Amino acid sequence: MPPIKRTKFKLTPDQLLEMFYWLKLIRAFDERLSILVRQGKVRSGVYTGIGQEAIIVGSCFALRKDDYICPLHRDLGAFLMRGVEPRVMMSQMFGKATGLSKGRDSALHSGVSELGIFGNTSMLGANLPVAAGLGLTFKMEETDNVVVAYFGEGASNVGDFHEALNFAGVQRLPIVFVCENNQYAYSVPIEKSMAIDDVADRAASYGFSGVAINGNDVLAVYQSTLGAIAQARSGEGPTLIECKTYRWHGHSEHDKAFYRSEEELAMWKSRDPIPTFTTYLQARHVLDDAKLKETEERVTQVIDEAIDYATNAPDPHPGDAVTDLYA
Ligand SMILES: Cc1ncc(C[n+]2csc(CCOP(=O)(O)OP(=O)(O)O)c2C)c(N)n1
Hints:
The protein is α/β, with parallel strands linked by helices. Helices cover about 40% and strands about 10% of the residues. A 5-stranded parallel beta sheet has the order 1-2-3-7-6, sandwiched between helices. A two-stranded antiparallel ribbon has the order 4-5. It is globular and about 50 Å long. The structure holds thiamine diphosphate. Thiamine diphosphate binds near residues 123, 152 and 180. Thiamine diphosphate binds near residues 124 and 182.
């Protein structure tokens, strides 16, 4: 196969390599966090997205800097891709003063408005009406910004999801709803919580399109998000993209996931988004052994540095507990 100049989605080799870097970095960040939890270094629940990275990378890659995301608990990678420094993110997980919320929350609820990240609360699906509010703001201000709102298939069973989609559909809001369907909501498999196969079908009730795609294919996620974003920017309203995937670890690091079989896990691991994309890049002469080694070394260096920084960072000062509050 001859080397490619750019893909049919107009991605250049450098952009493809950037996507590859993010996949590797986000995977490594979660893998190291998983070890750090066992070492007692993390002062937060850790909900890794290992196995699901293609969704975050493909969708965030399609965004502009001035767009917004509404992430959920499993989306730390989205924080990194939007520009949060790995050392700051690691500090956040360590509950250090150098973290996003300066060690004052359980780490998963911060937002960074200047990077277009709207912080979430613990209530499943509660980020979706917030995304609708952001979309309404963009519409009223007549900007062409969009918001990407992430949620799991479990969250698509709560009322907030349906209210948000209904409102977004009625108002034709510039929102891309990205469902990370990893097959389980904690221990509940999808067939025990939904009477239909595809979350994507729910969009039709609210007057817009829903599409179910392979969430382990970073280019498929990118392409779908790009199309949905173009539609949202031109005032044609929201889209629901359901990305089928699987989480390799338990719901959180304290969950041993006894409710699923080894065979099932092995089957999904064989669909690992990273080797699939690696082979794609190698076959098209975008990635050679030297670039692969360089990327892996860079990732290790970035993560090592982030851990060193967070380990040596100061704890929060009790006197700062009530700073940055407003009423
Ligand atoms: C309204 C609400 N109900 C229950 C919970 C407890 N809870 C937290 S995460 C979770 C499972 C979430 O599953 P899903 O939405 O599919 O996302 P995933 O964790 O699989 O990424 C549950 C039940 C909660 N936080 N909020």
